[in-house]
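WARN  no MSA supplied for this record, continuing single-sequence
INFO  ligand: calcium ion
INFO  echoing inputs
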Amino acid sequence: MNSSSELLNFIRPICLEAGKILNKSFGEIQYIKDKSTAIDLCTNADIESERFITKSILKKYPTHSIVAEEGSDNKTKSDYKWVIDPLDGTTNYVHNLPIFSVSIGLQYKNETILGIVYNPAADKLFYATKNEGAFLNNEPIKTSSSKALSECILATGFPYTHDKYYDASFSIFKDFYDKTQGLRRLGVASLDLCFVAMGRFDGFYEFNLKPWDVCAGAIIASEAGAICSDWNNSLIPFSGSRILCSNPYIHKEMLTVLNNKKYSLFYDLK
Ligand code: IPD
Ligand code: CA
Ligand code: CA
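INFO  complex generated
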């Protein structure tokens, strides 16, 4: 087995280079296509970043498995699985908002052992390896210490599909809005999680995300002291269907809101 620090040293320059690819095209989008819906976008930069990352990984580790958002998957029987969002926050990117990231997680035997998230526009690099803490630009980070929702600011997001979960998702938003100092919707799940890790947000919840939205950010937040779980306090599903991540003090209070019977429909998401 490769050591986590060896794997981190390998992936860090690749992640930074992918960020450069995104920065290069920022403000000059050449190609946009719709994916699941007309508001689910994909740009030339998503594709270029993903090709660069997957090619670089496979050059060094040809047998490793890859799950990547824009489809450059490598399905193998390897114990290692890279989980890649080459551009998280595409809608921001398309609208020239410099809030987007490259997000890369690594699992070994289905357990996340490393996460790296880079916000190239601000040159902020977040990373963590299992049991070794979380860092932002080489400085250790930790979660906030707010003890009650009434002292907190939270983050969330909404999926591109406006379906049977739509009304309930706004009801949850309202529940938290009534209990906190406010909620923010950045449009970049990986950075939402990193902002919980560094204590900028006290908590984050979302549903209908994908593995590449949460894999890296969740280990960074956990290593910074956050609790990451499903909405009923079981393990976060790899799928990203539901996630709750907060500082350790408010996790229970957030669970009480999300674990309400009226939100049981969200468990239809596998
Ligand atoms: C999206 C972002 C956003 C979340 C969406 C995701 P993308 O990823 O993470 O915060 O609310 O559900 O799909 O499409 O920009 O990679
Ligand atoms: Ca994403
Ligand atoms: Ca993406």
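Residues 46, 69, 85, 87-88, 90 surround calcium ion (ligand 3) (CB under 6 Å).
INFO  checksum written, moving to next record
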